[in-house]
């Protein structure tokens, strides 16, 4: 039976939140500080996979990585005294699980919606520990075994590299998630003491994720604005030091995290080589959270210091976005020719084709070169067979590219596609 990728991704999110990210399962087992051991090893392993492991080799190793993750998680129950070593190993082997779970979203026609569904379902799973507290073998089995659904995946479409755009965004991802690490290290313990209702913060995250999924196809950058504003509000509320404002701070932080998490997934899924993008992007995220947790430990007991540090970090993230925007604007001006340059990774295109329309710049930046070529021919009225012949690719590949174009632009047919282009 084929497991929907959103279920596999939800299983991964549930495991991540319950176990290595200072989750409730390890807390109930008496294992503290799991994230500070897991995150650096995880970031290093993700980077090595992204930079040095060929995609075919990754596919052959991923099932073993998933099984190792399950085994190490169960071994935490058997030998909690070895937790520090097991968490380091989980960081390394769990990188294969992380990559496989995220790449599984590529196997769907609606990756952004499936990402949102997986994030929401995985977070909802945490309610289980509220109704059924403890750290028995059954808790560990229920958390670890669903990871085995991640193993079966379809091949990933590979296109021309878009690494330059990824490198531009990595500083923002790092700086923003330093603020997330500050919140993980300081706000969560404070919230556990002042929570009005345990678990009520999760619906704020879930609502934000689905709202972000609706906005992502047309207004992806708006997700960043919402996330940054809500995180700024969270730090401001935290500074007041009351139980009510601590609760409100957590709600704002969770909603902001929902917007930014969905943005990051949508952003990384848009790359023609998502394995490299996910590896570097998620490694940077882990490193940011780890650095934020270190800072929060240095400022322990100083809510005003945490708020000041958080505000500074968020302003730095906005500054990094400003420089990203300037860099992209200059690149857009320098490459204003509507015909993309041919690269060694691209098939030979017929030079006699003259586009009847020019794609808006924001659309061109969102799509890969192959997707742009297929879209231009579709708008010119060419059939899939004619397009495949001109681009020397198969008709099924043309259909796949068109599905990806429609998903990225948030449309479901030619009429909506034309309307979307007109609005741009």
Short précis:
This protein has 424 residues and is an all-alpha fold.
Explain how this protein is built.
This protein has 424 residues and is mainly alpha-helical. The protein folds into 3 domains: 1-155; 157-334, Growth Hormone, Chain: A (Up-down Bundle); 361-423, Arc Repressor Mutant, subunit A. 73% of the residues lie in helices and 0% in strands. It has 19 helices and no strands. α6 runs antiparallel to α12 (243-269), α11 (220-240) packs antiparallel against α12 (243-269) and α11 runs antiparallel to α14. The radius of gyration is 22 Å and the shape is globular. The two termini are 42 Å apart. Residues 154-164 and 332-352 have low confidence and may be disordered.
């Amino acid at each position: 039976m084929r497991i929907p990728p959103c279920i596999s991704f939800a299983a991964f999110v549930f495991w991540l939140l319950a176990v290595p990210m200072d989750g409730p399962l390890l807390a109930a087992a008496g294992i503290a500080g799991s994230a500070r051991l897991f995150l650096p090893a995880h970031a290093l392993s993700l980077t090595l996979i992204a930079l040095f492991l060929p995609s075919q080799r990754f596919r052959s190793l991923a099932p073993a990585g998933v099984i190792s993750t399950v085994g190490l998680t169960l071994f935490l129950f058997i030998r909690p005294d070895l937790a520090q070593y097991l968490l380091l190993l989980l960081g390394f082997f769990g990188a294969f699980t992380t990559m496989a779970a995220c790449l599984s979203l590529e196997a769907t026609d609606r990756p952004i919606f499936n990402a949102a569904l997986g994030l929401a379902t995985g977070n909802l799973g945490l309610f289980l520990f509220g109704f059924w507290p403890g750290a028995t073998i059954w808790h560990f089995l229920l958390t670890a075994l669903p990871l085995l659904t991640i193993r079966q995946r379809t091949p990933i479409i590979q296109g021309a590299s878009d690494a330059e755009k990824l490198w531009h965004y990595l500083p923002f991802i790092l700086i923003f998630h330093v603020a997330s690490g500050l919140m993980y290290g300081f706000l969560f313990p404070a919230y556990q003491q002042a929570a009005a209702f345990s678990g009520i913060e999760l619906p704020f995250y879930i609502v934000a994720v689905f709202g972000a999924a609706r906005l992502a196809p047309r207004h992806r950058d708006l997700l960043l604005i919402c996330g940054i504003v809500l995180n700024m509000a969270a730090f401001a509320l935290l500074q007041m030091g009351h139980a009510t404002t601590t609760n409100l701070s957590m709600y704002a932080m969770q909603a902001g995290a929902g917007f930014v998490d969905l943005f990051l997934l949508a952003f990384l899924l848009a790359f023609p080589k998502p394995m490299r993008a996910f590896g570097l992007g998620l490694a940077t995220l882990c490193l940011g959270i780890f650095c934020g947790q270190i800072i929060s430990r240095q400022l322990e007991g100083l809510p005003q210091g945490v708020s000041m540090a958080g505000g500074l970090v968020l302003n730095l993230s906005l500054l990094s976005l400003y420089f990203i925007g300037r860099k992209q604007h200059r690149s857009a001006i320098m490459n204003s020719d509507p015909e993309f340059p041919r690269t060694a990774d691209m098939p030979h295109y017929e030079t006699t084709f003259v586009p009847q329309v020019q794609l808006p710049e924001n659309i061109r930046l969102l799509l890969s070169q192959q997707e742009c070529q297929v879209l231009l021919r579709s708008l010119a009225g060419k059939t899939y067979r004619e397009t495949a012949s001109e681009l020397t690719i198969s008709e099924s590949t043309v259909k796949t590219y068109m599905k990806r174009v429609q998903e990225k632009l948030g449309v479901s047919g030619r009429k909506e596609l034309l309307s979307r282009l007109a609005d741009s």
